[in-house]
């Protein structure tokens, strides 16, 4: 028995370079478990958001788990990083609220757009074009995009909780504080906030469990007939995007594809660099094996688009595992194992209502908005495009418009400030891309 254990640990050491990176199997296992607990909310939040677009929640649950499994396994064995991958919140929010509900495009056709974007995304990752374009985007605009998406997500959470409702006179106003479901969300928000302030790993997931239990106790949420079941069928969403490719025949749809590409471009790259910095992987201002990490993200995005979910991304919650000592792909492998087990708990989808997920969206918005602290607010030519990017997303209820505002105003203010030489030629090209984008979206 001891010999078998030694052989197994020896294989793990050789495969993931545990000794070389001053870690061990136990530490990596704890880190992977913590990472999963911290990001497990996506299993319920993603079906909730995509369900609002008309997609089958059970199929999305399965697609979410499978794409996360594929992404984590690729990150483990291809790049050997303790970074988990799963469908990104910014992309699913754009898919549902901007494309399907905002532009009136069917989810099937929108999913076809994701398939095309995923193929292009994989190609440009293989030829390292992705790295070139990412490096051309100013740091401040990257930070603004992350923060803007975070505020947009928080706004959606405030709406779903009932704390903010529509108003004919002022567009929005505070909701009714007499509704029990609103107070259920408020309870969840306070629980997660307290746990976060105490720096307890898995705060969001624990808060969602506490909110669900209160909802069950008060009768606001009904208990499902079973807690464990067979894996929900992928049938309602599998390959739907591929079968609807012929419907991608309008400039507006290709504009949507462009936005998916741009959002996916920056989503994972910024997170990867931040997590690598935390783990101490950055050497000479470069991240080793970043090409492999980007490929892991690209392939999982492609697989997810076929199964029926929005683009994947590296998860900032991986920082919880890294903080506990996770330094290798073994951490990501353990996380993949837990996502595999989660496939049999789909009945819990019925108890994780919008009032349960709303507090999680608000808190995630706060975490994403923290990137604003790194913005160079002291120079107006930087501050204005950043500000327009951030406020443009929630106020137009469209992530693409916020991005467009920032990319259009940035070259203008920089040239006016006498800083033309600091503008990368790719940013000039993107300026014209977004002019065309806004034209086809009929707002010019």
TrEMBL record:
Membrane-spanning parts: 60-85, 105-129, 141-158, 178-197, 204-225, 253-275, 296-316, 322-341, 348-370, 382-410, 422-441
Subcellular location(s) per record: Cell membrane
UniProt keywords, alphabetically: Cell membrane, Membrane, Plasmid, Transmembrane, Transmembrane helix, Transport
Membrane topology: Multi-pass membrane protein
Record bears the keyword Transmembrane helix: yes
Any one GO molecular-function label of the UniProt entry: purine nucleobase transmembrane transporter activity
GO cellular component: plasma membrane
Annotated InterPro entries: Azg-like, Azg-like_bact_archaea, NCS2
Pfam families: Xan_ur_permease
Keyword Ubl conjugation: no
Highest taxon of source: Bacteria
Family classification: Belongs to the nucleobase:cation symporter-2 (NCS2) (TC 2.A.40) family. Azg-like subfamily.
Protein name: Guanine/hypoxanthine permease pbuG
Record organism: Fructilactobacillus sanfranciscensis (strain TMW 1.1304) (Lactobacillus sanfranciscensis)
